[in-house]
Amino acid sequence: MEQISNQTDPHYDPEASKLGMWLFICTELLLFGGLFIVYSIYRYLNPEAFALAGHELDTFIGATNTIILLVSSMTIAMSTTALQQKNKKLAIALIIITLILAFVFLVNKYFEWGLKIKHGIYPGSEHLKADFGQGEILFFGLYFVMTGLHALHIIVGMVFMGITMVKVQKGTVHADRPSLLENAGLYWHLVDLIWIFLFPLFYLIH
Amino acid sequence: MENEKHHVVPYRIYFYILLALITFTFMSIGISHLNFGAYSVLGALIFSILKSFLVLTFFMHLKFDQPYLRFLILGVFLLFLAVVSITFTDYLYR
User: How far is residue A189 from each of residues A194, B54, B73, measured CA to CA in Å?
Assistant: First the structure.
């Protein structure tokens, strides 16, 4: 209660915005959770096909993207610390670094997907239907849907962080009112969290 | 009341967590090259759960937040486990 009284805006409630963000994150976790269940059932039914198809994916690119996301998670978390310590410049610099890392992740994804599509591996392709079994088709279908949905979250996260950065620059998000930056951070960590499970399940099948 | 709002996490904590996360990533890659058969999925999942625990606790501040948020996540996790076990009992005993 005392926390609210010293705010200039009576509608600002950091605890409520945090709870709202967490509730949204819970729905996102369940959305991907459902996809993970689909994955595990199909993998259980087609173990050999999933192992074979998993070899088609490049572990090096997957690992590189994992490290990129982990580092970007750290930089956006540090950005909140910087803002709370009233170091606005550092906070903005850290958001920019996070955005660059997110972009590099997407570039890697672009080349990774591009190579697959060039080799005729994409949902519904003739090559996939003619030369692959049901299990492999399922694997690549799940691969494109799940990494695609994840990449969509990366793009949304970049927009979210971009808006936050502008507001930090303008001064509407500041040391006593950091909720938006904290929530952008939470969203970005969610993206990281999902990738933590996607990476071993798709790239590390041997 | 505790002054939760102004809990500032020092930079070095985030850096140590990052090092731990990267170490776990390489360990999970390493373990996938050893042939444990069916257990390699288990190994990968254990590392993923360890990593997500670190991300949730430190990066997502659950350690420094009010405890009800931890229960919220625990609830989602239990709900997920329940759906997984119900689905698998269906497939295993058809």
Answer: 9, 11, 14
> Where are the domains positioned within chain A?
39-203
Quick check: A7 contacting B, CB < 8 Å? no
Q: Tell me the C-alpha distance between A186 and B59, whole Å.
A: 8
> If contacts are CB pairs under 8 Å, which of residues 57-86 in chain B contact chain A?
58-61, 65-66, 69, 72-73, 76, 79-80, 83-84
Averaged pLDDT for residues B45-70: 95
Q: A10 in helix, strand or coil?
A: coil
How far apart are the C-alpha atoms of A166 and A92, rounded to whole Å? 9
Q: Do A29 and B69 touch (CB under 8 A)?
A: no
> A5-14, A133-142, B6-15, B34-43: which range is least confident on average?
A5-14
Give the closest residue to B53 by CA, choosing from A193, A205, A72, A146: A193
Q: Copy the structure tokens of residue A5.
A: 């009284």
Residue pair B64/B5 in contact (Cβ under 8 Å)? The answer is no
Cα–Cα distance measured from residue A189 to residue B56, given in angstroms and rounded to the nearest whole number? 8
Provide the 10 A C-beta neighbour count for residue A55.
11
pLDDT score for A8:
63
Q: What is the pLDDT of residue A5?
A: 45
pLDDT per position as a tens digit, A87-124: 999 999 999 999 999 999 999 999 999 999 999 999 98
CATH C-level class of A39-203: mainly alpha
pLDDT at residue number A139: 96
Cα torsion angle, A92, A98, A99, A100, sign: positive
